[in-house]
From TrEMBL:
<dbReference type="InterPro" id="IPR002035">
    <property type="entry name" value="VWF_A"/>
</dbReference>
<dbReference type="GO" id="GO:0005576">
    <property type="term" value="C:extracellular region"/>
</dbReference>
<comment type="similarity">
    <text>Belongs to the ITIH family.</text>
</comment>
<dbReference type="GO" id="GO:0004867">
    <property type="term" value="F:serine-type endopeptidase inhibitor activity"/>
</dbReference>
<feature type="domain" description="VWFA">
    <location>
        <begin position="271"/>
        <end position="449"/>
    </location>
</feature>
<keyword id="KW-0646">Protease inhibitor</keyword>
<dbReference type="Pfam" id="PF08487">
    <property type="entry name" value="VIT"/>
</dbReference>
<dbReference type="InterPro" id="IPR050934">
    <property type="entry name" value="ITIH"/>
</dbReference>
<feature type="compositionally biased region" description="Pro residues">
    <location>
        <begin position="600"/>
        <end position="610"/>
    </location>
</feature>
<keyword id="KW-0964">Secreted</keyword>
<feature type="domain" description="VIT">
    <location>
        <begin position="16"/>
        <end position="145"/>
    </location>
</feature>
<dbReference type="InterPro" id="IPR036465">
    <property type="entry name" value="vWFA_dom_sf"/>
</dbReference>
<keyword id="KW-0732">Signal</keyword>
<keyword id="KW-0325">Glycoprotein</keyword>
<keyword id="KW-0722">Serine protease inhibitor</keyword>
<feature type="compositionally biased region" description="Basic and acidic residues">
    <location>
        <begin position="589"/>
        <end position="598"/>
    </location>
</feature>
<dbReference type="Pfam" id="PF00092">
    <property type="entry name" value="VWA"/>
</dbReference>
Length: 892
């Protein structure tokens, strides 16, 4: 194990480190002649439409890309491409249905790249389409979100990065809020420099309009802009007037929403216990930032608050056994304690949280609010480590008395576990991103819960049904409680709301009745927004509750969420948007990235610390194989997905856009002893055959020493064969030849494709533009970067690769009949292996033999993008159990 670590980790001096900069791709020959972003916010519900119109100014067809960033919290609800008058709409389908239907594409990773997360708040939507010479395409993407009130304001974030200066660029934002807008501010890096002049804000009583029409020239002159034009965010923050503490009710078309955010209530003093992870993995910057944040938080405590501090690694230390009043002396003592917190040891979450619960429970105070805050950066590794048992223990100990908030620091936490544990105990989990502002993030979270105003809030709607969540344990100043539902009887003219809550231990009620037929309410064109708002909130809450449910209940709620997602065409974790591309008949699937997945690209060009508290390549389970980096299911493994890589269909790919050379630095960290550890990407092997393995996420691969002509795939029954010719010293194949039913002959080389069907002879050239040819049961679909060959029920894709000045072909079998025994190098399907635990060098059990293996990174040439993937490298003979001479042919 050490050897592996030593191989991959190299000590370098600090000065060797340089940030890898993204290669700037210039798009000539493509003219984005108009780019509109149109956002409408009605009662906090924001619907944003991005429309990009692009012309191919080249005299031949080419691939045109559309890439935009949208807020993570939003659901995509529409995507449409219009080419030469024909529209192609993305269709939202159940994930399983989409997966089954397009299984081939999905498992090959060709389809999952449409949406991925970037940074903390955004997701990236990307697709491309081939557009004929001098033709145009219009892309249109719509997404929807309910803006959440935090620290007294709503934030509408709009990202604009059209990739080039655009002659006709317009951003229009219209906000309509019935109670009136109390303040509005436009911020973000697009509001800096010369661009400030391009922003216009118009305010009326209930409406605000923000327009942003920068000229082409201005588009190159903001802080974050360059010759590629705009690149940045506009952040519109605002709040609404709150004239009535009873809240605001909006009714439209049989649906209602109730916004409840009283501010006339006195603050409740709180009992807060901080449970702080000081395990080894917290060392360095994380520990420093935690200390800084805690010192500030302590300063912000009110004198009538009571507080406790617990630090833990494998042991749990209490600053004081009891909660103490936040007097000046106590705070000073607490601060000296905080300054001395040092990292060490493992992570005993169970004992630490239970100690916190015990501390609060032993300290009951009338009319106060108690809060337990856990901060951790790792999985439980000491004491009770079984996650189910920890959750059961914590739930039983807390017994709904107060909420538990979990802050997960970095990407090595089991965020699902933290989410579930906090939801089970009336709180929420929040991710703290490892970055220079982590201390501010920690403090920001504390600020949100710093001022409790009400506890045990129940909301009642006698005339409502299908209500979203109506009971909340705490209401904090600056936040907002939102309930939406359907109106039972639409003919009734009034609608009543009732809120019952505790304020400093005494009951308070807020009752309100509004007239539902107020014509001034909502403009008629927005009639549907309320129903969509209700659906959005319902789906969000159903999805959130999923982690807490089991069995039939879970299934039912899952079904309900799916039903609504389909009805409103939301791309949620349960659905996928299937985009069928015009000429190519190719399919792409847009999935919502799972919350908490590491961003595809580092949010900033900062050194990315290694989680060395967990060891570098720890054992998998008990003494198993050292897990390959990025193994999704293994806790504590240094995750490759915290590097610039993305997760596709169970494998990890280095993002090809990053263009990281094989020797690039992918992470580094300063050790406590001051040395600098640098991780280099492992060497990348070329010319390796990859085999996907049934039921295993890690593929197998083998190298073939290249003689001249190879039998790739053959089935004598259907008289099918595919052979390839390679040249010494070159990657891939120069010629691939197909023969089928004696009369069909297809020869593909790096310049042309010739096909003879017994009578006719056709020839295509690579790069001539999309073409299709069909005769009997043979079909050829030629695209710019590959050709799809179907013969009977065998389908092979041959991408054309250009690399280091050479051009070559690579065969990728997409579909082959299950019941046929194929021969040839690629004839091996349905292979399986087991990892043998406990051996010195990684060993697999393959076809009843023990085979030594190593984890290598290879280029997957089966895909046009040739992403780098990890695989278990095994000898060729171990897979095919024959000699290489059995696979050579004399003639193609
Ligand atoms: C934005 O949408 C509104 C309402 O649909 C429409 O009137 C306006 O023209 C749109 N603006 C742009 C720039 O597309
Ligand atoms: C496109 O234009 C270039 C230069 O004007 C020319 O060499 C080329 O043959 C043209 N290609 C096609 C497909 O017409
Ligand atoms: C709640 O926050 C507002 C500002 O957002 C402030 O004016 C008010 O005093 C706060 N209320 C309490 C009880 O702290
Ligand atoms: C609040 O009201 C509920 C029911 O209306 C009652 O059971 C409870 O005792 C009241 N609590 C206080 C503190 O008055
Ligand atoms: C590809 O095949 C065509 C037709 O047989 C031939 O003219 C051409 O020279 C070949 N190209 C290469 C690079 O061998």
């Amino acid at each position: 194990m050490m050897d592996r670590a030593a191989l991959w980790l190299i000590l370098l001096a600090v000065f060797l480190i340089s940030a890898t900069s993204d290669p700037v791709k210039k798009k000539q020959d493509v003219d984005i002649y108009s780019f509109y972003i149109n956002s409408t916010v009605t009662s906090r519900y924001a619907t944003t439409v991005i429309t990009s119109r692009v012309a191919n100014t080249l005299n031949e067809s080419q691939e045109i890309q559309f890439e935009v960033k949208i807020p993570k919290n939003a659901f995509i609800s529409k995507f449409r491409m219009t080419i030469e008058g024909t529209t192609y709409d993305g269709v939202v389908k159940g994930k399983e249905e989409a997966q089954q239907q397009y299984n081939q594409a999905v498992s090959r990773g060709q389809s999952a790249g449409l949406v991925k997360s970037v940074g903390r708040t955004l997701e990236d939507f990307k697709t491309s389409v081939t557009v004929a010479a001098f033709s145009k395409v219009t892309f249109e993407l719509t997404y929807e979100e309910l803006l959440k009130r935090r620290l007294g304001k709503y934030e509408l974030l709009i990202n604009a990065q059209p990739m080039q200066p655009v002659a006709d660029f317009k951003m229009d934002v219209h906000i309509q809020e019935k109670p009136g807008i109390s303040f509005l501010e436009v911020k973000g890096d697009l509001s800096t420099g010369d661009l400030t002049n391009a922003i216009k804000t118009t305010r009326a009583d209930k409406d605000a309009w923000v327009t942003f029409y920068p000229t082409q020239d201005q588009q190159t002159k903001c802080k974050s802009c360059g010759e590629n034009g705009l690149n940045g965010d506009l952040l519109i923050t605002y709040d609404v007037e709150r004239r009535s503490p009873k809240g605001e009710v909006v009714v439209s078309n049989g649906y209602f929403v109730h916004y409840f955010a009283p501010s006339d209530v006195p603050r409740i003093s709180k009992n807060v216990v901080f449970v702080i992870d000081r395990s080894g993995s917290m060392s360095g910057r994380k520990m420093d930032q935690t200390r800084v944040a805690l010192l500030r938080i302590l300063t912000d405590l009110d004198e009538d608050d009571h507080f406790g501090l617990i630090t833990f690694d494998s042991e749990v230390s209490l600053w004081k056994r009891e909660l103490l009043k936040a007097t000046e002396t106590n705070l000073e003592n607490a601060k000296s304690f905080v300054k001395k917190i040092r990292d060490r040891g493992a992570t005993n979450i169970n004992a630490a949280v239970l100690a916190g619960v015990d501390m609060i429970s032993r300290h009951p105070r009338e009319g106060t609010a108690s809060i337990l805050i856990l901060l951790t950066d790792g999985d439980p590794t000491s004491g009770e480590t079984n996650i189910e048992r920890i959750m059961a223990n914590v739930k039983e100990a807390i017994g709904t008395k107060f909420p538990l908030y979990c802050l997960g620091f970095g990407y090595d936490v089991n965020f699902d576990f933290l989410t579930k544990m906090s939801l089970e105990n009336g709180g929420v989990a929040r991710r703290i991103y490892e970055d220079s502002d982590a201390d501010l993030q920690l403090q920001g979270f504390y600020d949100e819960v710093a001022v409790p105003l009400l506890t045990d809030i129940q909301l009642k709607y006698p005339g409502g049904t299908k209500l979203t969540k109506t009971s909340f344990s705490l209401y904090f100043n600056g936040s907002e409680i939102v309930v939406s539902g359907q109106i039972t009887d639409n003919s009734v003219e009034s609608f009543t709301t009732e809120v019952i809550a505790l304020s400093k231990g005494s009951n308070v009620t807020y009752q309100d009745t509004i007239m539902t037929k107020d014509p001034s309410d909502v403009p008629p064109e927005d009639e549907d927004f309320m129903q969509r708002l209700w659906a959005y909130l319902t789906v969000k809450q159903l999805l959130e509750r999923q982690v807490l449910l089991t069995g039939q209940e879970k299934e039912d709620e899952n079904k309900e969420a799916l039903k609504l997602s389909l009805k409103y065409q939301f791309v949620t974790p349960l659905t996928s948007m299937v985009v069928t591309k015009p000429q190519e008949g190719e399919v792409e699937v847009a999935d919502k990235p799972k919350e908490g997945e590491a961003p595809a690209r580092p949010p900033a060009k900062m050194p990315r610390p290694l989680p060395h508290g967990h060891g570098f390549w720890p054992q998998q389970g008990q003494g198993g194989l050292p897990g390959p980096p990025g193994d999704p299911g293994v806790s504590g493994v240094l995750r490759y997905n915290s590097f610039p890589s993305m997760h596709r269909g169970g494998r990890y790919y280095i993002d090809p856009l990053q263009a990281i050379p094989s020797s690039a630095v992918v992470a580094h960290d300063i050790r406590p002893d001051g040395r600098l550890l640098t991780v280099l990407a492992p060497p990348v092997h070329d010319n390796v055959f990859l085999l996907d393995v049934v039921g295993q996420s890690k593929p197998l691969c083998f190298e073939v020493p290249v003689p001249h002509k190879l039998k790739l795939l053959q089935d004598s029954a259907s008289e099918f064969s595919m052979n390839g010719e390679s040249m010494t010293g070159q990657s891939g194949f120069q010629i691939i030849a197909f023969h089928y039913k004696t009369k069909h002959h297809l020869t593909i080389n790096t310049t042309s494709i010739t096909y003879h069907d017994g009578q006719n002879h056709v020839e295509f050239l690579w790069g001539q533009g999309p073409t299709q040819h069909t005769s009997e049961d043979v079909s050829l679909i030629l695209r710019s970067k590959g050709i799809a060959v179907t013969m009977g029920n065998i389908r092979v894709i041959i991408p054309l690769h250009k690399e280091k000045g050479t051009t070559f072909l690579w065969p990728a079998v997409q579909q082959q009949p299950k019941d046929v025994k194929f021969t040839g190098i690629l004839g091996e399907s349905g292979i399986s292996y087991e990892e043998i635990p406990g051996s010195q060098t990684p060993t697999l059990k393959l076809k009843d033999q023990e085979v030594k293996t190593s984890w290598v990174m290879v280029k997957d040439y089966r895909l046009a993008s040739a992403p780098v993937v990890g695989c278990w490298l095994v000898p060729f003979q171990a897979v095919v159990q024959r000699e290489l001479s059995d696979f050579t042919v004399t003639q193609l």
